[in-house]
Specification:
The complex is a heterodimer. By secondary structure, chain A is mostly helical. Chain A contains 15 helices and three strands. Classes of the chains: A mainly alpha, B alpha+beta.
Chain lengths: 288, 416
C-alpha cells in the first residue's frame, strides 16, 4: 500500500507533511543527496517507471529534484521532472488526488481544468466532453488528467531561488548531467528509410511517407526528440513537391509516434497496404 | 500629402469627440492605452487614465487617429517594460476578419502587384481569387461593401457566440460584447472573470478548440473495444459536434460518390451506403461499426469526414488576437483612422450595417480625389461609383474610405 504523500509529494499540502516528518535541508545527509541525485539522473534519462519508495524519501526526493532542476536551470529538465510525476500518477486511481484538490472529474469548471491541463493529447479541450463551461471526464481521461495535474504542480514555481543552496548540492546536480540517454533501437533493416530521407522531388505521398516511416524512424529508431526531429522533416518536405503541410500536423505525428513508441512500418507491410506508394518510390528509383 | 490628410482627419475627429461621449473600456484605470497617427496605428503606448473624465478629455484635446487599449488588466498600466506592469488578467478576444475568412464578393477588386493587372472578382471567370489570371502571381484583393458578405460575417459571429462561447464554454451573454472593428470585421470581447486569468497556453488551446483544426479523431474512440465505441450526438463539445455532423453527412448522402468526395474510402463508402440506416442508428448510440481497427487506415475515413466538416463547424478567427495577452485593441466607439468608421459596439447584430451605422465622419470638407478604380458601392446611405481613372470631388467620409482602400489619391481640398 503506497502512502498518500509518497505518491503525491508535489501537492501543496505535502510541505506540511514534510514539516511533521522533520524534513529540513540542514538535516539532509550526503547519502540521501547522493541517492536523490542518482534517481534524478534516471529521470533525466527518461526512466519514468521508478518504484515508489516510502513517504519520507519521496517527499525529500521531490524537494531535492526541484532544487537540482533549478540549479541546472533548463525548461527541458523542468519538463522531464513534470513528466516523471505525471507518468507515475496516471498509473494509479486518481480519486484521492482529486478529493484532496476538491475536483470532481465528472464535472470540472473550465477555468480549473485549463489551469491544470498540460501534456496529454487525449485531455486537450477538443478531445473531451465540454458543455456549458463544465468538462466531463470518463475514467480513461480522468487518469490522464491526474497526470496533467501532477505535471503542473510538480513544475509550479520552477526555477527556485537556489542562491543559498550549499555548494555540494550544486555539485550533485551537475553530476546528474550529461545524462545517460536510452540506447537507440537498432537501425538494421531500415536502410530503405535512409534512401527515402535522401530523396527529392517526390510528387505524391508525403504524408503517408511521414506517417509510415519518417516520423517513427526519427523519434524511435534514431532516438531524436520530437522538437529535434521537426526541422529534419521540414527540411525533407522542402525538397518535395506539393502544397503546404502544416507544422502542427508534423508535430502531432512525431509526438504520437514517440508517445506510443511506434516503429517504422516494414516495406512489405506498406506494400500490402499501399502498393501504389511503394510502386511510385520504386519507379522513381528511391527504392530498389 | 499624408500630413495634410492627417490634419483634415484630426480636425474631423476632434469635432466628433467634442460632440460624442465615447464610453471608456471597463476597468479603465487598469488598462494600457496606445495611440497612432496617420498610417501608423501605434506610435505611443504605455498611456493610462485614472478616470473616464480624463479619458474623454484626452480624446477631445488630442483627437488621436487611432486609440487602442490593452486586453490585459495591469496593476501599473503605464509602467515599462511590460514585465513591470504587473499583469492581473486579460479579456479573451476573438477577431473575425472578412479577408481572413476568404469571403470575397463579386464587386471586390483584385490587383496584381507583379504585372499590374486588375479587375473585379466577378470577372475572374473561373480563376481562383488570390492569383493573377494573367501571370499567376499572388494578387491583393481590395474589399468593398457587400451585403451578402456582411450577412456571412454576422452568421460566423453568432454561431461562435452561441455554439462555442455560450453552449461549450458556458459564458454568460452578459459577459460578451460585439464590436465592429472599424474596418473589415468584428471583435468579440469576453470579459468573464472566470476566464481572465487564463495563461497564453490555455488561450492557444481555446483558440484551437474554436478553430477545430487540430482535432485528432483517434482520441474520440475507445479502440480496444469491438465494435468500436465513439462519440454520440448527445455528447458535449466537439465529440457531439462530430457525431452530429457525421450523422448528417451519412443521412443526406445520395450515393457512394457523395461520401468518396468527402474522403471516405470507396470500400467503406459502399459498406456504409449498403447499411446506412442501421449505421446511423448505431452512431446515435455511440457505436461506429464502419471503423475497422485491424486496418492501418482505420480512422482515415472518419478523419476525412471530420476534415470536410471542420470549415463549417470550426471558426476561422485571428489566432494572434486571441492569444496575445499584451495586445492593444481598438477602443469601442472610437474612430478607426484608416477608414473613418467607428469601431462601434453592436447591440443588435442583425440590424447593424457598418457602412451606414458606423460612419462617423461628416461630409465636409469635400476632397478632390483621383480614383484609379472602384466599383459601384453603397456607403453612408448613398450609392457611389463606379470610378475608373477619374478625378472626382467626394465628401470626406467616402473619400477617407477610398483612400484607406488604396484605390485613390488626394489631389487637394476643394470645398470647406
Amino acid at each position: 500500500m503506497v502512502s498518500f504523500y509518497a505518491l503525491y509529494p508535489f501537492l501543496p499540502s505535502a510541505s506540511k507533511r514534510a514539516e511533521r516528518l522533520g524534513i529540513t535541508m540542514e538535516g539532509v545527509g550526503d547519502l540521501e543527496i547522493t541517492a536523490a541525485s542518482d534517481r534524478f539522473r534516471e529521470i533525466l534519462s527518461r526512466r519514468f517507471d521508478l518504484p515508489v519508495l516510502d513517504e519520507r524519501t519521496e517527499i525529500l526526493h521531490f524537494i531535492l529534484f526541484r532544487i537540482f532542476a533549478s540549479i541546472l536551470g533548463s525548461e527541458y529538465y523542468y519538463d522531464l521532472l513534470g513528466r516523471f510525476y505525471a507518468e507515475r500518477v496516471r498509473q494509479h486511481d486518481p480519486s484521492e488526488l482529486f478529493a484532496e484538490l476538491g475536483i470532481d472529474p465528472s464535472a470540472i469548471p473550465l477555468p480549473v481544468y485549463m489551469s491544470y491541463r498540460h501534456i496529454y493529447p487525449e485531455t486537450l479541450l477538443y478531445h473531451v466532453d465540454l458543455r456549458g463551461g463544465i468538462v466531463h471526464l470518463d475514467d480513461v481521461t480522468a487518469r490522464l488528467f491526474a497526470g496533467d495535474v501532477a505535471y503542473t504542480l510538480a513544475r509550479k514555481g520552477l526555477p527556485l531561488d537556489v542562491s543559498g543552496v550549499p555548494k555540494h548540492f550544486a555539485d550533485y546536480a551537475r553530476r546528474a548531467v550529461p545524462i545517460k540517454r536510452s540506447k537507440p533501437v537498432s537501425s538494421k533493416g531500415y536502410s530503405f528509410i535512409e534512401s527515402i530521407m535522401g530523396a527529392s522531388g517526390l510528387p505524391d505521398g508525403r504524408k503517408r511517407i511521414i506517417f509510415f516511416w519518417l516520423a517513427p524512424y526519427l523519434v524511435n529508431v534514431k532516438g531524436m526528440a520530437p522538437e529535434d526531429a521537426l526541422p529534419v522533416l521540414e527540411e525533407w518536405l522542402s525538397r518535395q513537391s506539393g502544397g503546404k503541410i502544416t507544422k502542427s500536423w508534423l508535430k502531432d505525428e512525431l509526438i504520437l509516434a514517440k508517445r506510443k513508441g511506434i516503429r517504422p512500418w516494414g516495406l512489405k507491410k506498406v506494400e500490402s497496404t499501399d502498393p501504389a506508394l511503394v510502386k511510385m518510390l520504386r519507379d522513381l528509383g528511391v527504392l530498389q | 500629402m499624408s500630413d495634410m490628410i492627417a490634419r483634415v482627419l484630426k480636425d474631423a475627429f476632434r469635432r466628433y469627440y467634442r460632440s460624442h461621449d465615447v464610453p471608456p473600456p471597463p476597468d479603465l484605470e487598469k488598462r494600457e492605452f496606445g495611440v497612432g497617427d496617420y498610417g501608423r496605428k501605434i506610435v505611443r503606448r504605455h498611456i493610462s487614465f485614472v478616470s473616464p473624465r480624463e479619458f474623454r478629455r484626452y480624446l477631445r484635446e488630442e483627437a488621436p487617429l487611432y486609440i487602442s487599449y490593452s486586453v490585459g488588466y495591469f496593476e501599473r498600466p503605464e509602467a515599462t517594460p511590460m514585465e513591470a506592469k504587473g499583469l492581473l488578467g486579460a479579456d479573451l478576444i476573438f477577431e473575425f476578419d472578412a479577408d481572413e475568412l476568404g469571403l470575397f464578393a463579386p464587386n471586390d477588386l483584385w490587383v496584381c502587384p507583379s504585372c499590374g493587372a486588375r479587375g473585379l472578382v466577378k470577372d475572374l471567370k473561373g480563376f481562383r481569387v488570390g492569383f493573377c489570371p494573367r501571370c499567376g502571381e499572388p494578387t491583393k484583393v481590395v474589399t468593398f461593401p457587400d451585403a451578402e458578405r456582411e450577412e456571412k460575417l454576422k452568421e460566423e459571429v453568432e454561431t461562435l457566440i452561441k455554439d462555442f462561447l455560450v453552449d461549450d464554454f458556458g459564458i454568460s451573454k452578459k459577459e460578451i460584447s460585439i464590436n465592429f472593428s472599424g474596418n473589415r470585421g468584428y471583435h468579440i470581447h469576453v470579459r468573464s472573470p472566470a476566464l481572465r486569468e487564463l495563461d497564453k497556453e490555455a488561450r492557444i488551446e481555446i483558440v484551437e478548440y474554436v478553430t477545430g483544426q487540430k482535432i485528432d479523431v483517434r482520441y474520440f474512440f475507445d479502440v480496444p473495444r469491438m465494435p468500436i465505441v465513439g462519440p454520440r450526438p448527445t455528447d458535449g463539445g466537439w465529440k457531439g459536434r462530430i457525431a452530429r455532423g457525421v450523422i448528417s453527412i451519412l443521412s443526406s448522402a445520395r450515393d457512394v460518390s457523395d461520401l468518396v468526395r468527402r474522403g471516405v474510402s470507396p470500400s467503406t463508402a459502399r459498406r456504409i451506403m449498403r447499411d446506412r440506416e442501421r449505421i446511423v442508428e448505431l452512431i446515435r448510440q455511440g457505436i461506429w461499426p464502419f471503423i475497422d481497427t485491424r486496418k492501418a487506415d482505420a480512422f482515415e475515413s472518419v478523419a476525412s469526414l471530420v476534415r470536410s466538416l471542420s470549415p463549417f463547424m470550426g471558426k476561422e478567427i485571428d489566432t494572434n488576437t486571441s492569444v496575445d495577452i499584451h495586445r492593444l485593441i481598438r477602443v469601442p466607439d472610437s474612430i478607426h483612422g484608416s477608414t473613418g468608421l467607428l469601431a462601434k459596439s453592436v447591440d443588435n447584430l442583425n440590424a447593424f450595417d457598418p457602412y451606414r451605422d458606423a460612419v462617423a465622419l461628416p461630409e465636409r470638407p469635400y476632397l478632390n480625389l483621383h480614383v484609379d478604380f472602384a466599383p459601384e458601392f453603397e456607403f453612408a446611405g448613398e450609392t457611389w461609383g463606379p470610378f475608373e481613372d477619374i478625378n472626382v470631388e467626394l465628401p470626406l467620409h467616402v473619400s477617407i474610405f477610398l483612400l484607406s482602400k488604396g484605390v485613390a489619391s488626394w489631389r487637394l481640398t476643394t470645398r470647406g
